Amino acid sequence: MIKDKENNFSEEDMDLWETVSNKTKKYKKTNRIIFNNKPEITKPIQKQVIEKSNKRESIFIKEKNKKEMPLVNIKGNLEALDPKEIPAGISLKQAQDIKKGKFRPEKVYDLHGYTQYGAHNYLNEEIIKCYKGNIRTLLIITGKKLGASGAEGVLKKEVPRWLNLSPLREVILMTSWATPRDGGDGALYVLLKRYKEIKY
């Protein structure tokens, strides 16, 4: 197309433009992209509840609906220890003496005032120290509360499980609920193996 001096198109150009524009296909729908302006709705992140014990400086993060872990050891093929049962590798007389409290504890660990996290770390450190020092008989007081099904409590349930996990399971020979004078089913007798029996 050629414009004249006044910047106008000639008649021939205008006729040509009309012819071309009438033959072009017109689209009914626009090809523009339309974005949804609605804000995205996100659920607020639930904050973890942190509880500090007055007696201990350990921090325990509560977990809702935490699944109970089975009694399993994570090293070797060792038998799972049950405070109600007599394990293999110990004589019947020795096991009965432990259950009757005839072996007096050389060390007593009272977990009252500990959080679950703090108690676990504390027991791991102390039991390994006892094992290396050849201290064999322990009393662990977990505490308990009476519920609909008898004696209950978080540490009463968790401590026997911890004793079945490495590194503790490798150094423990037997566990048993204590006699009434030592706390009953709110405490545990623990018999450790001799230090020379385990090689790290």
Description:
The protein is α+β, with helices and mostly antiparallel strands. The chain has a domain at 67-197: Ribosomal Protein S8, Chain: A, domain 1 (2-Layer Sandwich). The protein has helices at 11-23, 92-99, 116-132, 154-162; strands at 50-52, 59-61, 107-110, 137-141, 145-147, 150-152, 172-177, 187-192. β1 and β2 (59-61) form a beta hairpin. The N and C termini lie far apart (94 Å).
List the helices and strands and how they pair.
Elements: H1 11-23, E1 50-52, E2 59-61, H2 92-99, E3 107-110, H3 116-132, E4 137-141, E5 145-147, E6 150-152, H4 154-162, E7 172-177, E8 187-192
Parallel strand pairs: 3-4
Antiparallel strand pairs: 1-2, 4-8, 5-6, 7-8
What's this, in brief?
The chain is an alpha+beta fold and 200 residues long.
Distance between the termini: 94 Å
Number of DSSP strand runs: 8
Q: Describe the sheet with the most strands.
A: 4 strands, mixed
Q: What do the pLDDT scores average to?
A: 75
Radius of gyration equals 38 Å
Give the CATH architecture of the domain at 67-197: 2-Layer Sandwich
Task: Give the helices and strands as they follow along the chain.
Answer: HEEHEHEEEHEE
The name of the CATH topology of the domain at 67-197 is: Ribosomal Protein S8, Chain: A, domain 1
Helix content: 10-25%
Which CATH top level class of the domain at 67-197 fits?
A: Alpha Beta
Widest sheet, order of strands: 3-4-8-7
Low-pLDDT windows of residues: 38-74
What proportion strand? 15-25%
Please tally the helical runs, counting DSSP H or I stretches of 4 or more residues: 4
Structural class: alpha+beta
